[in-house]
Batch of 2 targets.
Target 1
Amino acid sequence: MLETTISGSLPKPAWLAEEVPLWAPWRIADEDQLAQAKRDAVRLALLDQEDAGIDIVSDGEQSRQHFVHGFLERIEGIDFARKKRIGIRADRYEADCPTVVGAIRRPAPVHAEDVRFARAHTSRKLKFTLPGPMTIVDTLADDHYGDRPTMAMDFARVLNQEARDLEAAGADVIQFDEPAYNVYLDEVKDWGIETLDTAVAGLSAKTAIHICYGYGIKANNDWKKTLGSEWRQYAATFPTIAESQIDQVSLELAHSGVPTAVIDLLGDKDVLVGVIDVATDTVETPGEVAALIRQTLAHAPAERIFPCTNCGMVPLARTVAVAKLRALAAGAAITRDEL
Ligand code: ZN
């Protein structure tokens, strides 16, 4: 019980990409050397998590520059040479997004080899993350579909093919990242859940959805200040998500305005509770982590609680991220002992 895990990403070693800035370019130009360097970074990410005592580990997304575009780079129908600067997450901030120019198709598995490699280098349970359908369509310019639900459903089918391959390659948990679920609350009900259920159809691996308030960048921190003392986004979507086919829901809790009682709305889903804040360099003490986990136990049994990070740790310094991994595992251990 209280198995620990992370949202997904970890900082990259300085020899692979510059530390801290999001979407930093690769530092190695040679294709073969870059591929080797990414694999080395995956081994370190696995080792850092194992050393800290994390139970369900990820590859730290070391092979991807961007959590959405990294998957899309190998999907047909998207023109990466035609990037447009568009407002995303309801215009919260702007990003250079590639353009959808034709029907979406996956000519070959995208991350199966990454999963096989990670699987071969850890004996722990392995999680792999993919962007979710709604967040994908919100992070693309569209010159083809002209309709978000239709485009999202095509992506959901492609994601399902990919997820089946990742499961076969040895992933124990397949997580879909959907920060857009905290932005488009009505769309979650109108078409979001249907695309999510399509993405996870027929999988026997554990499936998860990660819904957060974003990395600790200025646009997100400013947005959070407008949300009032009690953040109500999860309360609006969780009752619908509770009816979906997904097994686990990953939410942000540490240093947030999220009331712990939203966990009550998730029915019998596993709950990945964010007890590590990724928007600050201040490292939580194990005692602080334990206190937060204890709060959640009033809302779900320990078997369904998985202490986790609020979001990806890619924009943090590596030393900070490693210290936070340790605090996460140590805090969970304290609570486990109490039980
Ligand atoms: Zn996140």
Target 2
Amino acid sequence: LLIRGRVLTFVNEPSGVDDTASYRFFEDGAVLVRGAAIVASGDYDRVKSLAAADVTIDDHRPNLVLPGLIDTHLHFPQTQAIASYGAQLLEWLNTYVFVEEQKFADPLYAASIASRFMDELLSNGTTTAVAYCSVHPESVEAYFMAAEERGMRMIGGKVLMDRNAPEALRDNPQRSYDETTRLITKWHNRGRAHYAISPRFAITSTPEQMEVSRTLVAENPDCYVQTHLSENKDEIAFATSLYPDAVDYTDIYARYGLLGDKTLLGHCIYLDDREISVLAETGAVGVFCPTSNLFLGSGLFDRDRFDRIGARWSVATDVGAGTSFSMLETMDEAYKVLQLQGQRLSPLNSFYRMTLGNARALGLDDRIGSLHAGADADIVVLDSCAKPAMELRMRTVKSLVEELFILQTMADDRCVAEVYVAGNAMKGKARPEAAPTGR
Ligand code: GUN
Ligand code: FE
């Protein structure tokens, strides 16, 4: 398969709008795919000469061809809880999320939402995501089955929670150990699946369950770890009151051995310099979730402080506190959150972050996030003129960087013209089932 279009892929983090060395752009470009992998990418004439004479050509000109987008934090069982009104974090969890997540005890319900969830990611151009499932192992089965059916590289895991939640959503230390261990054995590195050990956050785990998390991480050093950190002021006060020996919120997780270079920490809004330094030293990643942080009124992620201290960060939707599955819409809000703090996010950096940047945050940049030879053929095709207002604005465009900024600011899923997963075009293959009403 030869995918023709205006090809854009990053090789490094852009330092600003003039950093042309950070990316490769081919106005008449192509990506040659054999099976599930990329064989070559670059100028159309050169790449075409490497292909068989009868190669199938998907001609997407004048659309942009990029690596598939990557989302580093969201909640699969909150697909039907997006846009739940009027509450900040703890009240929102208790009022809406802990009600919705109980439905995932039912494997049929879980399977039906998992299918819709994967299709929604794909229609927004996201080919890899890191998601929390519910406390029920059935939800993890549904999640990885739906990903496997579509050939997607997906990361996820069962949340561990044994207090401060309804009875029906609580496991216990032994059960969380046994179920997580069984799920890792079954799913971790099966095909394109990767497991994330997922203690929800300090508030919903007893010290005994945090000890279990420590053991799971020690026994499975190759798995991801995900949790939430420092999102909301009431949450911080509650969490630190439950762990009086810890010097701050970050220290709770540090004490239980949960911080390392495969650890993803959602939000990280109110960290002080000491805490960000701990992330820098351990290699843990702070995950910036702009639509969620605005929606729940949580606060503003201080990207410049992460960069100054040298800590890693990634970007994510955080659906269902996040209000969109679209990484493009997410970067639009990221730009605004940084604007409110006098910080700048260049369009090049946005597109780097959604692709190679997030792939690096996951340590998967050899496989995804760029179009280098040998990479997985996860590819998105973006149409900068998909909406009438965009088409009108695009008539005045003078540069690639300007076009990227228009895409980031105005795009939604209408701009995703095609998405390839492991070399397969998925746009025509989405088969939404009737959604359960849940009523
Ligand atoms: N903190 C603990 N659980 C959650 C969740 O589901 N969403 C968000 N935004 N924060 C959390
Ligand atoms: Fe979250």
